[in-house]
Amino acid sequence: MKITVDFEECLKDSPRFRATIEEVEGDVCELESKLDKLVKLCIGMIDAGKAYNAANKQFVNGIRELAQQSTKDEVIESSLTKFAESLQEMINYHTILFDQAQRSIKIQLQTFVKDDLRKFKEAKKQFDKVSEEKEAALIKNAQAPRNKQHEVEEATNILTATRKCFRHIVLDYVLQINVLQSKRRSEILKSMLSFMYAHLTFFHQGYDLFSELQPLMKLLGGQLDQLVVDAAKEKRDMEQKHSTIQQKDFSNDDTKLEYNVDADNGIAMEGYLFKRASNAFKTWNRRWFSIQNNQLVYQKKFKDNPTVVVEDLRLCTVKHCEDIERRFCFEVVSPTKSCMMQADSEKLRQAWIKAVQTSIATAFRDKGDEGEKLDRKSSTSTGSLDSGGEPKERSLKGESALQKVLAIPGNAGCCDCGQPDPRWASINLGITLCIQCSGIHRSLGVHFSKVRSLTLDTWEPELLKLMCELGNGVINQIYEARREELGARKPQPGDPRHEVEAYIKAKYVDRRFVRRPSDEELRNKVVSLSKQEKRLSSSSEHLPPRPPPPTPKLRPGSNASGQSVKSADSGIQNSADGSREMLANTPSNNSLADAEAAESPPMPMPATLPPPSPCKEVVFYEPKEYSPGLQLYWASCARSLPDMAEALAHGAEVNWVNTEDDKRTPLIMAVQGGSLVTCEFLLQNAANVNQQDAQGRGPLHHATMLGHTGQVCLFLKRGANQNAADIDEKTPLTIAVEAANADIVTLLRLAKMNEEMREAEGPYSQSGQYNTNSPTEMQYRKCMQEFISLQLDET
């Protein structure tokens, strides 16, 4: 309840004023009690949150340890690792939330209680004191005798001075009351609003994080259903096997030991035997013996290195031992030593003696044929030797996206606040961000910034190349060109979120710090880019012709049973010749080309492909007007990503149309320039992959005409319409067939076949989404990615 005390009323010192003062004092006392209680509850909440975070960290560490323990199961290891990283991010979000609660509730309200309420109490003490002095002066003035003039004058003077002091104090007190009543509202609302915004940010970041994780969770959910079915089936099989084995007679199990020289693991025979030690006590120890690679070895434990008893079985002999007390003994004698062993039964002893004798005979027979080598692998153990050796070394993974991106100068800190070791990136700007700035960038919308994790997300080669071409230094030179001139302060790590958010919006949304070029500067820039494009074109023209890059083999996909995946309508036969044979067998609308391919044997591809359909020559001429769109147009052709980023910052439309040059767009000019990364940058900034020029040709048409296979793959990957026809009624496939470009023809036909298979299977699967994990789809995507990587390697 807000109580306003009138200044005029306080001078009267009426009962109404006293009642109002008393009500205010009671309300302030209650307010202080409630605020103290709220601050204590906030402290308790923060302490509990810290304890929760500590326990949660231990839980996440447990998940990581479980993932490390599951290195043999790649699905569990990778999934648990990713889940642990996501949960760790949520712990970081919780920490930020509790820090914000401490700043907004605890510190802010404590400051209000200690400062403003303390001033109120001090003013109240002075008011109470002067009120008592005024009351005493009034009583003394009333009691002064009439006949004692000096006492009357003294009482009158004291009363006058006291009243003046009272008026001054009471006015200050009323002012303090009114200020407190006004300030309490703003302080409480400011504190709670800041706390609620912290919650909003927390849940927004959590939603974004798990939205990125959702595809993996859906994929694992589908795999989990299959795992449950497989586990149930395996359980039934094991129960049946268990029941079958229980019914067997194990009394003669020692006869199961047989000699097999062609065993897959190279072990001809293995089993337990007692071995007499060569020490003075002649003790007997049970060991696991095996015959492998013309040697007799044993070991005590599975992980122990085998001990060789006989180096070469051809130099030894085996015999029964009946002159000792123990039963079922036999001896293997070599020129240097002998080894006494004991089997568990007579049948096992005979089996081991026979096995040693057979190994000796086999070793002599193999010695006579030096040209043949046994296809048996030596193992370091004698049990399940395939699993007992050292685990197979995994193929080394390439340098992670995080390491590559952070290696770019300026990328080691957040682009906007300088926070070291950033873990997020804006892929359309080409910059690295800390977790707080990444959340602010997400709130701007994807038309300003597309945020991706450097550690949680997978990175395509073309996207990684794009990040390495730009970087924080390049972008800040553009978007912060006038920052110092305008006196704007760049945020630092730990600054309040609202300050960082205001700076980022001014930087990227309002583009307040971008330096606008003059008309002359813009003209010089455009002319320079056009000349740069000519130099690139002329340098490539004078190079000797080179053979085309190796074509990635289009290996057939396989299903769970290992059979080849075939399409009933495609007629494509899988072979080692990959794309060449697919070119001959894939269906096409061009019946003449198909007939010729069927009648004549496949021709070897020439060192250089025939010239494609003629494209309009890129010629610079003086335009009617210079604009940022024209700068983007020529920068795309000149493959200059910094100049493209600068043009976009100056307000260039990414789908700008050059009406003076056949209505070409920057994306079409990027195709002319031959850079795949330039196309990727424009597509990431919302370029239309199907926008056509005056000839009705889109970027896919131009990439096909120029024979840029990697760009064709990129456009197909981004949803380019391969059925679009130009004014001559030619589709990209028609152009590729006329140019005899086998790679592009194969890719376009595969894309069309993939489309038809999708339509034939129905628009949606049971989960409501396309089955993008089918073998055909995965092979198609893999083929496209290989072509993209080849073009990236070339450039």
UniProtKB/TrEMBL annotation:
It is found in: Cell membrane; Endosome membrane. The keyword Transcription does not apply. GAP activity stimulated by phosphatidylinositol 4,5-bisphosphate (PIP2) and phosphatidic acid. Residues 399-521 form the Arf-GAP domain. Residues 379-388 have a biased composition (Low complexity). Residues 601-610 have a biased composition (Pro residues). InterPro entries: ACAP1/2/3-like (IPR045258), AH/BAR_dom_sf (IPR027267), Ankyrin_rpt (IPR002110), Ankyrin_rpt-contain_sf (IPR036770), ARFGAP/RecO (IPR037278), ArfGAP_dom (IPR001164), ArfGAP_dom_sf (IPR038508), BAR_dom (IPR004148). SUPFAM superfamilies: Ankyrin repeat, ArfGap/RecO-like zinc finger, BAR/IMD domain-like, PH domain-like. GTPase-activating protein for the ADP ribosylation factor family. Residues 367-396, 519-610 are annotated as: Disordered. Residues 367-378 have a biased composition (Basic and acidic residues). It is a peripheral membrane protein. SMART domains: ANK, ArfGap, PH. Residues 266-361 form the PH domain. Residues 559-577 have a biased composition (Polar residues). CDD domains: BAR_ACAP2, PH_ACAP. One of its GO terms (cellular component) is plasma membrane. This is Arf-GAP with coiled-coil, ANK repeat and PH domain-containing protein. PH domain binds phospholipids including phosphatidic acid, phosphatidylinositol 3-phosphate, phosphatidylinositol 3,5-bisphosphate (PIP2) and phosphatidylinositol 3,4,5-trisphosphate (PIP3). May mediate protein binding to PIP2 or PIP3 containing membranes. The BAR domain mediates homodimerization, it can neither bind membrane nor impart curvature, but instead requires the neighboring PH domain to achieve these functions. GO terms for molecular function: GTPase activator activity; zinc ion binding. It comes from Xyrichtys novacula (Pearly razorfish). Its main location: membrane. Signal peptide: none annotated. Keywords: ANK repeat, Cell membrane, Coiled coil, Endosome, GTPase activation, Membrane, Metal-binding, Repeat, Zinc, Zinc-finger. ANK repeats lie at residues 662-694, 695-727. The keyword Coiled coil applies.
